[in-house]
Design a protein that fits this description.
The chain is of the alpha/beta class. The protein is 45% helix and 15% strand. Strands 3-2-1-4-5-6-7 form a 7-stranded parallel β-sheet, with helices on both faces. Helix 1 packs across helix 8 and helix 4 packs parallel to helix 5. The longest helix is centred in the middle third of the chain and has 28 residues. 45% of the residues are buried.
């Protein structure tokens, strides 16, 4: 019970990595406040939890939703110890087929969303006497991939947000770290527009681009989040942790 009596807020908790983190945190004793855009998905996550939980729909792109989540979490559980900025989207496209609307959506969700939710929740962590923030980045934030301009830029921004806030919040006993997954089996690519056939082919090819010979699972990423949120990581901050089967180490192939 590494998170006994702790309170965690997880964005994008309705599926994939967010759902796995919420389930693991709950199993480790935390009360979990789940946020996301779809109530049915959040309710499905609740079924996998063992302890106390609360659900609130909304969008990380709206500052008013971030403020409401912070207030509801404090009112429901008395405070906040752990923030997981997991919500994010993916989008294809480069400069030659630039789409301003898709670019703006990526930046508003993956970058502004992290800023707004952290802005709303960080005072609760400080008020508690310390805590932890875990951001979900990507291997694309530390190495470029053609045709993923917006996504790469947005995830690189998450890295700098993580390290900048780590410096700012360290005196307040709040740690800030990021997890950089490789390819993980979730709904991310399919909700981003990839059909089932293309996704199956992408997963098969990814076995050759990851030195481990396979793609990852949401549970493996959740384990890294648990470490950053646990007392064992209280002197660990500003870390960008690749959880990617060695993907970031490889040359193009």
């Amino acid at each position: 019970m590494k998170l006994k009596d702790k309170v965690a807020l997880v964005t994008g908790a309705g599926s994939g990595i967010g759902r796995a983190i919420a389930a693991l945190f709950s199993a480790e004793g935390a009360s979990v406040f789940l946020t996301g855009r779809r109530r049915d998905s959040l309710d499905a996550t609740v079924k996998s939890l063992k302890g106390r939980s609360a659900v609130s729909t909304g969008d990380v792109r709206r500052p008013e939703d971030a403020d409401r989540w912070a207030a509801e979490c404090e009112r429901t559980f008395g405070g906040l110890d752990i923030l997981v900025n997991n919500a994010g989207i993916i989008g294809n496209g480069g400069i030659l087929d630039f789409n301003r609307s898709k670019w703006r959506d990526l930046m508003d969700t993956n970058v502004e969303g992290v800023i707004e939710v952290t802005r709303a929740c960080a005072p609760l962590l400080v008020k508690r006497g310390g805590g932890s923030i875990v951001n979900l980045g990507s291997v694309t934030g530390i190495r470029p991939y053609g045709g993923l301009l917006g996504y790469c830029v947005s995830k690189a921004a998450v890295n700098m947000i993580t390290q900048s806030l780590a410096l700012e919040l360290a005196p307040k006993k709040v740690t800030v770290n990021a997890i950089l997954p490789g390819v993980v089996v979730t709904d991310l690519h399919r909700t981003g527009g990839m059909d089932e056939g293309a996704y199956a082919a992408f997963l098969e090819r990814s076995k050759t681009t990851h030195p481990s010979g396979r793609v990852g699972t949401p549970d493996e990423v959740a384990e890294a989040a648990l470490y950053f949120a646990s007392p064992g990581a209280r002197w660990t901050t500003g870390v960008l942790l690749s959880v990617d089967g060695g993907r970031a180490l490889t040359a193009a192939r």
